[in-house]
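forwarding from the other thread:

> can someone predict this with acetyl coenzyme *A?

sure thing
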Amino acid sequence: MTTTAVLAGLGAYLPPRRVSNEELSERFDTSDTWIRSRTGIRQRRWADTGISTGDLAYEAGHRALKSAGLGLGAPIDTVVLATTTPDHPCPATAPDVASRLRLTSAAAFDISAVCSGFVYGLMVAASTIEAGHAERVLLIGAETYSTILNPEDRTTSVIFGDGAGAVLLRSGTPDEPGALLGFELGSDGSQKELICIPAGGSRQRSTYRAPDPGDMYFTMQGKKVFATAVRRMGESSTALLNRVGWSIDSVDHLVGHQANLRILHSLAEQVCIDRQRVVTNIEQVGNTSAASIPLALAHAAAQERFKIGDRLLLTAFGGGLTWGSTVLTWPGITPS
Ligand code: ACO
């Protein structure tokens, strides 16, 4: 039988500081009513100064190891960290996280696909296992968007939150609960400016001359992104379901990127799945980008929404533009 990546552990970690809509309403010209009605978000977590993406990633990674019955120093071959907010532009954050987890012989690298980063990471991790290059891969999605939000931009400031989620994937077979059964990924770089940090890279170098301070922050043209996000996640989901031979009626849970509750409802309409089968936790955590899907998985698993063998469809959309979907069966693991 072919080798397949199987989900064996799930961990989640949120920084302690809760930021309510009311708190943001004191800082920006906004309101709890606007934020809830336009996005569904009630609160988010922001990391206090001094807490980095790597710190959140370490906590989530450690919990995923524990959920899989492993611990610090476990025999992990590869650590992949999906993030938009690495600790440093150079080096990658994953080797530091791997070292703190005492995974001293693991290959470790970051991947950058913004809010699609976790699904892209699943594809990389699963392919590494399927090719026989690794027995166990730890994949972490971690973000501290609070560090890149423009304090003068009320729209992005109310949407994004910090957090980390992680999964441990092991080598297994496609008939096992937890098996990742297919991927459908895509990108459209011609629309890169819709979600962008303009400065600080090689295009607009901060070492050459001081950039416009606004260009150092995260920017998003939300209205233009909205319809594309729904369409791309919908098309990618449908194409993947067709490829693996699952009807939408056979999908027990749709776990979409938690960008906006209205996007999740529109996506449900587009793919014809009822809202009861759509997992949401955006109300509590906001949009946590690459951490969004593992945090939503951990949230639903902690509420015992998933049964062993349930069919899950995961789909994400983000800057790049990028998008991607994957399907798996639920292994019955307990998140840590
Ligand atoms: N409080 C009050 N009013 C606000 C706020 C706020 N926080 N933010 C914007 N507004 C105002 C705008 O100024 C505008 O006012 P105007 O009509 O007088 O000009 C009005 O509200 C409507 O603004 P829109 O931008 O049209 O608001 P919209 O309903 O589109 O919601 C949002 C904005 C939430 C950003 C939405 O467009 C969205 O979710 N877009 C998709 C985001 C997404 O999917 N991103 C991809 C993944 S994330 C990633 O990759 C990092």
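The chain has a mean pLDDT of 96. thats all i got for now
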